[in-house]
Amino acid sequence: MLPLTAPLPLTTTAAELRSGQRDLLTYIHAICDRIDALEPQIQALLPEPGRRERLLMEATRLQRRFPYPEQRPPLYGVLLGVKDIFRADGFPTQAGSQLPTGLFEGPEASCVSRLREAGALVLGKTITAEFASDEPGATRNPHHLEHTPGGSSSGSAAAVAAGFCPLALGTQTMGSVIRPAAFCGVVGFKPTYGRIATDGLILYSASVDTIGMFTQDVAGIAAVAPLLCTDWQETAVVTHPPVLAVPEGPYLAQTEPEALQSFWQQVSQLEKAGYTIKRVAAFNTIQGIKEQSRYLTSAELAQVHAHWFATYESLYRPRTVEKIRSGQQVSPEQLAQARAGRAVLRAEMEALMRQESFDLWICPAAIGPAPAGIASTGATVMNSPWSYAGMPALSLPAGKAKNGLPLGLQVVAPAMADEQLLAWAEPLAEALMEDYHV
């Protein structure tokens, strides 16, 4: 029987396809064979009759368009998973819901178009929690089928971990990129709020929704981020390691004991690798931050769904109904205060970075490994403050829990320092996980 996870690094795959070292049609057949064998267990993708035939036809067109290796675009033939809240030409958008798909029709998301222009072929839509909220889809964690892959970008993270595609798109409102990346043992990147245009999405909360991506290693993220992030600036060669800081206090105390112990082991490992790590008191008002974030996201979710919910309430699942109704109760004053709080929190966290003279925050990517069962996608509390502040975050694989499931380290930079975050990320990943493989 095939293993449920498999290595499929993006940069290696793309280089082999561009050069012709790996035949594109053979690659398509191999991936489709793997999906046929394993997808009934993992359920990362929306069903698509004739997926193989479509991909072979698109691949053949790509070959004809770019017959010579030196002409081929950077993602030539790379298979792309697209979270099912993005519009993508040729695919219906269901957003993990039972509502009529015609409600969500419109132009393709520009981020999908950009990746197609770079040579990527859309493998298919990946399963999401209903409207990227709390009601999970059917996807299971490839590392252990009885555990959640996280959410709401569940199918995207699982598809990358399973070796179905080397690249997948997701979104993060609270923790929907960083957490599933950690649970599935892959790399997840949530850039600074606003750096990737969110047109063509079924939005959850326009004030915080951020498009992110999953690959199996940092090099893959570093190859794709410049294609999608606006005003990307190539950084100079990194000549010194970053100074890191742990946000001590009530935020960190939310972590489960085993995960917290593993986190301090990761800190020790990084210190042995030569990194300077400071302990900085932060998020002393974490409960207030969570409340403001909850007001903001639930109120904006209610606004997005106002018309649909009035007509199709019976088709929504219970937790989504609860979230929308909760958002309807947020007053205009509460919403305005919650929106204003984003910039306040960002300024506070970045002021701490300047005052204490460090470059990056590090903390657990989730409160523990993926919980058992698929009825819940796990807690977002380690991610939501950074999302609320709009700061860029990265989840790096960081070993395994005692039960063998992956753990992740969350690394956070100041807003608009995405380039520097990724420049520093690969050495950090190597220091954390010399012997770890997806």
UniProtKB/TrEMBL annotation:
It holds the Pfam family Amidase. Signal peptide: none annotated. SUPFAM superfamilies: Amidase signature (AS) enzymes. Residues 28-422 form the Amidase domain. Transmembrane segments: none annotated. Gene3D superfamilies: Amidase signature (AS) domain. Residues 133-154 are annotated as: Disordered. PANTHER family: AMIDASE DOMAIN-CONTAINING PROTEIN, TRANSAMIDASE. This is Amidase. The lineage of its organism: Bacteria, Bacillati, Chloroflexota, Ktedonobacteria, Ktedonobacterales.
